[in-house]
């Protein structure tokens, strides 16, 4: 039987587009109100805020995140190659802006290790190109920590022509100039992606690619912190192969290790790891996580200050952190041109991590987010703070998990966290002057535990899916050994190639009938299947398109043990010889057979079927080459008196076959060529016999 297709209503696409354009360009008070409410989701949920029910959880989670955020922000400034004050600015503004624009109730947006690393690599490269020394301990005139002194220290003896501008600018001001320009461009990219609804780009970053990228970047981060752990002074490596070059420099200078930093690092790592392990083990009994990082920083700062570790043992310290806010400044346009390419992977990674974490929280707590609005939120979390000496931000997994575990209900907790950071910015920042850099490095390394633990999951991952494991390994290796940006690109390209290869060489099978049923399965995979006499059933488990056409034909010919082209050529050759013998008056054939026996000779013994059924249930689409391939096998097998029947075609495949003329001009033979199940096709073949 042939099912009747529904008649589609023809849509005038031009009129639809014009209607949408008119609707989007029109401006009414109601539409303006809806636009503002959608652009600032806080206006929708804040008036409905249930204070008695939500406030305690929001305040507690906000305080805990703020306490965690301060030491992490100071530590991650090492990754970005910037002063700690800029990390604090970043954490403050990101929380405020996401509170206004974000649609997730639980995600924690702020400074993130991977994003800081990507920013730091660009900053280091541009500093090197501008002729600055990448040594972290280069002399700096940060005096007593006031903003006036800081602004003076940004202007040194360097009189440079940088990025097309004449600028008398020191290392620090040029570094933050690069970071803010990079952040601004990344934010613009994210907003443009939101306007043009390009959020689908994130679909090409699979879980294996993201995990491999995070693990490879974590190895790079760990390597960059080793010199702080042991207190040696080596240049910050740049370019491809940074991880290998850095380790070579570390091993060459290991004899210069600072014993004070080594002892401090060992103590801090032991304390931090022990506290983390105990926190993970007894988290169901703890109402909120232990503020171990803050305790370590406070104790280490006091010991360093009163023990005079910097003066006596030459231990490297954070230095003066100014209080207050530096006046806003527009990122320089010429610097934006220099970092425009670098901003693209930064924008994509930042958006992907934020949306994936937002979706995870929304699914867990049964609410919805708007991915497009998340793109706008993250974009403006980069654009606006870039005017206030901040760098790129993203959602962070560790802080998001802490936020949800401490009773967070809404983004009011983000405002509380911002207030904690503001308190440090206005009053407490100078107290961290004596904080050793090795302590900050310990905090960064311990925070990488989650990403580095992915190595333990490799056997389980390999057991689940070998191809995904290969994608993870390739992405991780490229991110660690080449660079993070190239590693991400390699991971995306390699994962796509894996998909292409899988469709180029998919599984193929001949099917047998399950006894006493109307179902058919792979003859090589299952026992006790019975073959259908004079019928071959062929399954191809992929779309049929130009890249796998040849594999389709080779597999078909191999499994059926018949190449119709070779068989046709053999028959033509045989017939030609027969005609030559007949012309000579010889009544025996070339093989010594009589003319009456010639017909038997023309039907080769290896052809043991008269009907070929193609199971199209796994063929999701056909391109022009795919349609022509099916038409080709239809013709070739017809020349051998073998019928070709198609079974289980989806509507898209049927439409492609119709447009390609597979069923003829009037589709008259369609009922005899197309069947809705394999069993129908087999029954039809038996009836025709």
From TrEMBL:
<dbReference type="GO" id="GO:0016324">
    <property type="term" value="C:apical plasma membrane"/>
</dbReference>
<dbReference type="InterPro" id="IPR001902">
    <property type="entry name" value="SLC26A/SulP_fam"/>
</dbReference>
<keyword id="KW-0597">Phosphoprotein</keyword>
<feature type="transmembrane region" description="Helical">
    <location>
        <begin position="410"/>
        <end position="428"/>
    </location>
</feature>
<feature type="domain" description="STAS">
    <location>
        <begin position="525"/>
        <end position="685"/>
    </location>
</feature>
<keyword id="KW-0813">Transport</keyword>
<dbReference type="InterPro" id="IPR002645">
    <property type="entry name" value="STAS_dom"/>
</dbReference>
<keyword id="KW-0472">Membrane</keyword>
<feature type="transmembrane region" description="Helical">
    <location>
        <begin position="376"/>
        <end position="398"/>
    </location>
</feature>
<keyword id="KW-1003">Cell membrane</keyword>
<feature type="transmembrane region" description="Helical">
    <location>
        <begin position="212"/>
        <end position="230"/>
    </location>
</feature>
<keyword id="KW-1133">Transmembrane helix</keyword>
<dbReference type="GO" id="GO:0008271">
    <property type="term" value="F:secondary active sulfate transmembrane transporter activity"/>
</dbReference>
<feature type="transmembrane region" description="Helical">
    <location>
        <begin position="472"/>
        <end position="501"/>
    </location>
</feature>
<protein>
    <recommendedName>
        <fullName>Sulfate transporter</fullName>
    </recommendedName>
</protein>
<keyword id="KW-0812">Transmembrane</keyword>
<dbReference type="InterPro" id="IPR018045">
    <property type="entry name" value="S04_transporter_CS"/>
</dbReference>
<feature type="transmembrane region" description="Helical">
    <location>
        <begin position="96"/>
        <end position="119"/>
    </location>
</feature>
<feature type="transmembrane region" description="Helical">
    <location>
        <begin position="335"/>
        <end position="355"/>
    </location>
</feature>
<feature type="transmembrane region" description="Helical">
    <location>
        <begin position="54"/>
        <end position="76"/>
    </location>
</feature>
<feature type="transmembrane region" description="Helical">
    <location>
        <begin position="173"/>
        <end position="192"/>
    </location>
</feature>
<dbReference type="InterPro" id="IPR036513">
    <property type="entry name" value="STAS_dom_sf"/>
</dbReference>
<keyword id="KW-0325">Glycoprotein</keyword>
<dbReference type="InterPro" id="IPR011547">
    <property type="entry name" value="SLC26A/SulP_dom"/>
</dbReference>
<comment type="similarity">
    <text>Belongs to the SLC26A/SulP transporter (TC 2.A.53) family.</text>
</comment>
<dbReference type="Pfam" id="PF01740">
    <property type="entry name" value="STAS"/>
</dbReference>
<dbReference type="Pfam" id="PF00916">
    <property type="entry name" value="Sulfate_transp"/>
</dbReference>
